[in-house]
Structure formats: structure tokens, C-alpha cells
Write a structure and sequence with these properties.
Blueprint (H helix, E strand, L loop, with lengths): L4 H20 L1 E11 L2 H8 L1 H21 L3 E6 L2 E6 L2 H14 L4 E13 L2 E3 L1 H12 L4 E5 H6 L2 H4 L2 E7 L8 E6 L24 E8 L11 E5 L4 E4 L6 E2 L10 E6 L2 E6 L5 E5 L25 E3 L3 E4 L2 E6 L11 E6 L1
Helix pairs in contact: 2-3, 3-4
């Protein structure tokens, strides 16, 4: 039997309004990214087929453990899962359980805040900040934002250590972040950082200049970023970074420049790594000189490769982002000078 026209119209309209309400609703929840650490090396070591099976099995285990603790899988993107939880305490229990049972090393970041649901996916600042925290996390590490820390009970909070401040573009005050110490001795791996919010008048200034993409011209060549002592800066591919380097070997949130104990530190968070090359010869602008086609000259003194590690920036020199080999061609490089 066919429905009357008016009834069909009412049914379609009610369905549209229901979908529209769901699409636009905002609700606070714990947003968590879980990423397989060093997956590129895993593919190289085991081969594509074996590595893909191991990663798929690991992420499937993560999905099941999250569901057991009330978590919902939003999507999988490559070697990373996006999950949401309603209960902060159950989210913490899930993350600990996931790390304890993980077949492969995982990096986890979690933030609490409102999200926008659209057609089964989540969007908004909460999601972006959770991704930032995951980029900062090292293998087998769980990094939490302050809202997550404040929302959990005292027992779970006692397992957290504050270890850093995260600078968000457009936000004046850096945000405290925490490591969840889910295994014995985890606190020994914390990188302690005390950020000076109001530097003295004599505080040094770090100047960064994007000199070359290594292969021809790229967007942003010549971009200059000046960082006063007491402030942080984020470098990477993501549009929210303070210095944007849109290159395939550069991670979304590749590195941070931080100020600690009177000196600037470069902290690498990336998969491909970086190389700091200090004490380079000066060009006419006072910064390190470049070779043909914008490549840094050979013979830089003090080449220091780093991947998920920290090194001071002193004097002048250059940083090559996207590889730990200082002789590798086709890698973006940024000159620096501390004044």
C-alpha cells in the first residue's frame, strides 16, 4: 500500500531534521589518536605484506580493547586510529590496557573537549589538539592534555607527570601537558621542561629562515620566524605551525623550538628526523651561507642528527628537516641565528 503524499513528506522531513541535528551537535568527549610508532622502519624491516598484517592485527586489538572500555572507533587512517570516549576514567583505563597488550609500540595522545560530529566523523579544535599531542608522544608513551588530567579521579591522576608546555598558535599561554606513567619506571623517560612565560628584557632572540626545499623552489622560501626567549614555536607541514614547511618528508608537527635555562632547544617529534649543523660560515645577511641551488655548503661543523630527541641551538647554523643524513640531497633546510 502506498503512503499518502503528505505522510511521505512528513517522514522525509523528520528524517532530514534528525540527520541535521546529529550532524551539527557538539558534545564534550575524550578524543584519542593511537599511532603505530616507527611504522616506516617496520615496513622496511619485515616487508610490506608482513608489516601490514602485524599493524592490522595490532590496530584490531586496540579497537577491541577500546570497545571493552566504552570507546568508539571513529576511523582508521593509515597506521593510526581515532577513538572517542565519554568517560575520562574509562578512557584512561582503556589507554593503559591498550599499551599493556600492544603487539607493537604505540604513540597515544588524548584531549577532552567539544567535537563536531558530521556523518560519522569528528572535527574541531579538540581533534586537532589530540593530533598534536600524538605527534609529540614517543613510542610507548601516552600524552594527555590538562583537561583530561583534571577530569580523571585522584588515583588515575597520581599516575600522571607534567613534563612540558604546548604552544598553540593563537593562544598566548602555553598549555601544560602530562605523561601517563602506565608502566613501572615510565617516569624516568620524561623530558622535563619549565617554560618561562615572561622573559627578561635581555632574553635572546632566535631567527629562523626557510632557505631551500632542496629541490627547486617551494612555497614559503625566505619565510623568517623570530622567537623571543621564553616562547616556543612549532615547525612542520600542518597549517597551524608557526613555520610551515610543506614537504613530503616533513611531518605534520615535525619539531618544536623551546626555551629552557637561557637557551633554545630543538625538539624533534618526527618519523624521518632532522640534522642540526652548527657553526656554518656567514653570508651577507649574517646567517649561514648556502651553496648552489640553495643547498647548504659541504663541511658544516658539528652536524648532529636527531630523531625524537632534543639538541640546543647555539650561535648560527642550519637545520635540515626530513632526514638524519647531513649529505642527503633534496631535503628542506632552515638557517638559524641566536642573537
Amino acid at each position: 500500500m502506498k503512503w499518502p503524499v503528505e505522510r511521505r513528506v512528513r517522514w522525509l522531513l523528520r528524517g532530514f531534521l534528525t540527520w541535521k541535528g546529529r550532524a551539527d551537535r557538539r558534545a564534550p568527549c575524550i578524543v584519542t589518536f593511537i599511532d603505530v610508532a616507527a611504522s616506516v622502519a617496520l615496513y622496511r624491516q619485515l616487508g610490506d605484506a608482513v608489516a601490514a598484517r602485524q599493524i592490522a592485527a595490532t590496530l584490531d586489538d586496540v579497537r577491541r580493547r577500546a570497545a571493552f572500555h566504552g570507546g568508539k572507533l571513529v576511523k582508521r587512517s593509515g597506521d593510526e586510529l581515532l577513538l572517542v570516549f565519554i568517560s575520562p576514567d574509562r578512557a584512561i583505563d582503556a589507554l593503559i590496557d591498550i599499551q599493556n597488550r600492544a603487539r607493537l609500540d604505540l604513540r597515544i595522545g588524548a584531549h577532552l573537549g567539544p567535537v563536531l560530529w558530521q556523518r560519522g566523523d569528528v572535527y574541531g579544535d579538540t581533534v586537532n589538539l589530540a593530533a598534536r599531542l600524538t605527534a609529540i608522544a614517543r613510542a610507548r608513551q601516552i600524552v594527555l592534555s590538562r583537561p583530561v588530567f583534571e577530569a580523571i579521579d585522584g588515583t588515575r591522576r597520581s599516575r600522571c607527570e607534567r613534563f612540558e608546555r604546548l604552544r598553540i598558535k593563537g593562544v598566548a599561554t602555553p598549555l601544560p601537558i602530562y605523561q601517563l606513567c602506565w608502566e613501572g619506571g615510565a617516569a624516568t623517560h620524561i623530558n622535563t621542561l619549565q617554560t618561562t612565560l615572561f622573559p627578561p628584557p635581555s632574553a635572546p632572540v632566535l631567527e629562523l629562515v626557510l632557505e631551500s626545499f632542496g629541490e627547486g623552489l617551494g612555497k614559503g622560501i625566505g619565510t623568517t620566524l623570530r622567537i623571543a626567549g621564553g616562547h616556543d614555536a612549532l615547525i612542520g607541514r600542518d597549517p597551524s605551525c608557526d613555520l610551515i614547511i610543506d614537504h613530503p618528508r616533513v611531518s605534520r608537527f615535525h619539531a618544536t623550538v623551546e626555551f629552557q635555562d637561557g637557551q633554545f632547544l630543538l625538539r624533534d617529534h618526527s618519523t624521518n628526523g632532522s640534522v642540526v649543523q652548527a657553526d656554518a660560515p656567514s653570508n651577507s645577511r649574517g646567517g649561514p651561507s648556502s651553496g648552489p641551488s640553495g643547498e647548504p655548503p659541504n663541511g658544516y661543523a658539528g652536524a648532529h642528527p636527531l630523531r625524537r630527541a632534543t639538541t640546543p641551538l647555539r650561535g648560527q647554523g642550519a637545520v635540515r628537516f626530513g632526514h638524519t643524513d647531513p649529505s642527503r640531497a633534496g631535503i628542506p633546510h632552515v638557517t638559524f641565528m641566536v642573537a
